[in-house]
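Issue: copy button drops trailing tokens. Both records pasted manually instead:
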Amino acid sequence: MDGQIELVAGCFSQSFENTKKTGAELYLDPSRCYATFKDMVAAEAKLPADKRIDFVSIVTPNASHFAIAETF
């Protein structure tokens, strides 16, 4: 990347165990690693504006992109 962003949250797998492992490898706060994208949307929306995610990168098979983008 260009050094202008910081990865702060994620849902990295359909397996929450894999998501937690990936989050730990990326040095993320465990409370910001989510079991589902819907959990991520709900939890991040509750954070103060200056603490929540600014944007999301959707890296899933094409068939799932619309539902995820629409939810975010």
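Record 2 (pasted manually too):
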Amino acid sequence: MKEVFGEADKWLSQLAHATGGRAYFPKSTQEFGEAYAEIAQLIRHEYSLAFAPPAADNQLHSLKIKVKGSAFQVDHRQAYLAPAAN
């Protein structure tokens, strides 16, 4: 059973990374508090950017985000699925 949870944790971590999120696995009440504090701090300093895909080709496109001269950690999704042409 431990292996199943380990595999699930791995998949959740990969999903969180691919979508620009984070995964938390607290093991104690104190760790829950630390996770909540970190999440609150992240939300206070969150920015949201959007763009219109240049092509409606129903294809998966990778994303690369750069912030010049920044000491900030940038969490972002790794790719997007362009819409299909009408």
